[in-house]
Amino acid sequence: MWFSYLVAFLLTWQVFCHAINNPSSEEKQADYSGYSLHRFKVDTSSNTMEKLESYDMELDKNTQTARLLIDIWAEPSKQNPHADILVAPEFLEKFKALLTREELVTLKMIEGDVQSQINAERHAMFRNSIRRRKRSLKSWKDFDVNSYHSYDKMVEFMKLLSEQKSDMVELIKVATSSEGRSIYGVKIHPPGGSPPEKPSIIVDAGVHAREWIAPAVGLFMIRKIVDEYGRDPQVTANLQKFDWYIMPQVNPDGYEYSRTSDRLWRKTRSKNTTVNRWCIGADANRNWGYRWGEAGANRTPCSNIYMGSHPYSEPEIRGLKEYFTWQIANPMVYISLHSYGQLLLSPWGYTHERTENYQDQQNAAKEAAMAIKNTTGVSYSYGTISEMMYPASGTSIDFMQHRGVPYIYGVELRPTDNPNSFAFNLPPSFIRATGDEMMAALNAIGTHAVKVKRL
Ligand SMILES: [Zn+2]
The whole model's pTM is what? Predict the structure, then answer.
């Protein structure tokens, strides 16, 4: 008996070592050895961040590869004027010199070797996958919302849920990605359906590939609404008042690429060889057509915030726009989940001017932040994109505002001031608390909308 255990152990160990040393059999992993993460205080009225951002990529025409030199992970905001920036080892001296010139002296290194953090996350995921094996789900209840999953597994869960809870959940297809993946979401309504003009709450997540906590929270909320309907009074009331559209992963190509090849991938995976042969993808949250290419836009295809060759050049965003425009009759709340920074960001992004419903949006955000605080004790700040940080145009937030949706927030989920500096590598043990607080925030915004709009 012990011998078979020993053989089984050795085989598992061999597979484990192979996977760690050769993380993906078909594709080489991006390597961030020696990249360090820095936090420093910035005067948000200066253009320091724009200056730094202009150095983000270096293109080596001999090897035809783009190498990341600098990457902004967390933008400073008025409430928290600290920036987190990833710096390539060969750029570190120049980076420090630039900061000295800008008289920024409070530099603090919060992670010395980002690759070791990425490796630790991969080890943990691999141990988890050995434990769970690749079993297919028998019931939607078997889906573990407290883990990070492949896109296929997310779709399997949503399909199963829509079959087994067909009185409440409809599977919706919103777009097809550049690489041909179907982008699914769910529409959740009370058993028996809803009248056609019922107001809706719309949630999308995963726009930026590496922000893994966002799709995990989207899936967590789907499960929570279905589970708690009829049990939790707030969930029940908000499902009776609103239809919920939740699209937990709207950039599946980028997400899978971040899982298999480059953990820090942010953009889509579109190829546009007429524009640039070397650099792939666009920033899906700079590609919306309303005020596309204005403030804070980047026209360099290699940049991490490249706005795309034209408005809606990315099929994911084109599909979302069509779906939002033609399939959702009465959108009342729109939330786009991102990470990280613990912020609730409302329009406008392209200008410092205030929207006409600015005060009402801020009132709802205040209630959401209070609900979060009461649920997990964590603090989220709120304000408009342009007033909290730097202008950004071509975002879904501005598109939805232009469309007349009353309550709109781009949410930067956890972490922020965490001493562990998890950044994008937030361990799955945080999914539950982050999901619970976001559910509380959305319930608070829903309750506010019901009161103010007399729904
Ligand atoms: Zn994001």
Answer: 0.91
Strand ranges of the sheet holding 36-41, from the earlier edge strand across to the other edge? 70-74, 82-87, 36-41, 108-111
Q: Give the pLDDT confidence score for residue 417 in this predicted structure.
A: 58
Q: Are 295 and 395 in contact (CB under 8 A)?
A: no
Taking residue 142's Cβ as centre, other Cβ atoms within 10 Å add up to 11
The 10s digit of each residue's pLDDT in 321-346 is 999 999 999 999 999 999 999 999 99
Closest CA to 79 of 42, 37, 38, 39: 42
Question: Average pLDDT, stretch 390-409?
Answer: 95
pLDDT for 7 = 46
Helices (H) then strands (E): counts for the chain? 13, 14
Give dist(CA 176, CA 187) in Å, integer. Answer: 18
User: Cβ(222)–Cβ(173) under 8 Å?
Assistant: no
> For strand 169-176 and strand 108-111, is the pairing parallel, antiparallel, or unpaired?
unpaired
Please classify residue 159 by burial: count the beta carbons closer than 10 Å to its beta carbon, then call 0-12 exposed, 13-18 middle and 19+ buried: middle
Given a contact cutoff of 8 angstroms between Cβ atoms, the answer to whether 79 and 388 are in contact is yes
Which residues does 383 contact at the CB level (< 8 Å), separation at least 6?
A: 77, 78, 79, 343, 345, 346, 362, 365
Known catalytic residues? 412
> What phi and psi, each to the nearest 5 degrees, are found at residue 331?
-70, 125
User: What's the angle, vertex CA 229, arms to CA 227 and CA 235, rounded to 5?
Assistant: 110
Top-confidence range, 10-19, 408-417, 436-445 = 436-445
Higher pLDDT, 7 or 413: 413
Res. 12 pLDDT band, cuts 50 70 90: very low
Token pair 């613990």 is found at 342
> Rounded to the nearest whole angstrom, what is the distance from the C-alpha of residue 412 to the centroid of ligand 1?
7
Cα 339 to ligand 1 centroid, rounded to whole Å: 6
Interval between CA 211 and ligand 1 midpoint (Å): 6
Max CA distance (Å), the chain: 74
225 CA to centre of ligand 1 in angstroms: 24
Mean pLDDT for all residues in the chain: 89
Q: Could you give the residue ranges of the DSSP H alpha helices within 133-207? A: 151-164
| Model pLDDT for residues 191-213, shown as the tens digit of each residue | 988 888 899 999 999 999 999 99
Tell me the CATH number of domain 139-453, given options 3.40.50.1980, 3.50.50.60, 3.40.630.10, 3.60.15.10. Answer: 3.40.630.10
Separation of alpha carbons 391 and 452, rounded Å: 29
